[in-house]
Write a structure and sequence with these properties.
It contains five helices and no strands. The protein has 117 residues and is mainly alpha-helical. The radius of gyration is 16 Å and the shape is globular.
Length: 117
């Protein structure tokens, strides 16, 4: 995220993304710094292990296949889930499949009940 910021920065983001992901850039920068230092230490306390795990999940959450745009609503929901620790019980390898499942379930629900959108 921090490595690929455009010249326009956050002015290109929607208000929903800005409000949800406000601290995400800082969190990921701190995660990358801690991850680089943790390579030299095998003795991490539980707090640091949790922080690194959360950073792994958030990094995975931001990945998407090339040429596969993600609708804004799906981005907002995924980021909300990640930022508010709803994905903390997942393994990093489960994030992508969870997002696919969750987005599909939401899409099916809104198609069955369009008046509830």
């Amino acid at each position: 995220m921090g490595l690929s910021v455009s010249r326009v920065g956050s002015s290109a983001q929607s208000k929903a993304i800005k409000s949800i992901a406000g601290s995400l850039k800082l969190d990921l920068a701190q995660y990358r710094e801690m991850a680089s230092f943790s390579q030299f230490s095998s003795d991490l306390d539980e707090k640091h292990v949790h922080f690194l795990s959360r950073g792994d999940l958030l990094s995975e959450l931001l990945k998407q296949p090339q040429y596969t745009p993600v609708p804004l609503g799906d981005q907002v929901i995924s980021l909300y889930a990640g930022v508010h620790n709803f994905l903390s019980t997942l393994q990093t390898s489960e994030v992508g499949p969870f997002e696919t499942f969750f987005e599909r379930a939401l899409s099916e629900k809104t198609q069955r009940h369009p008046s509830r959108n």
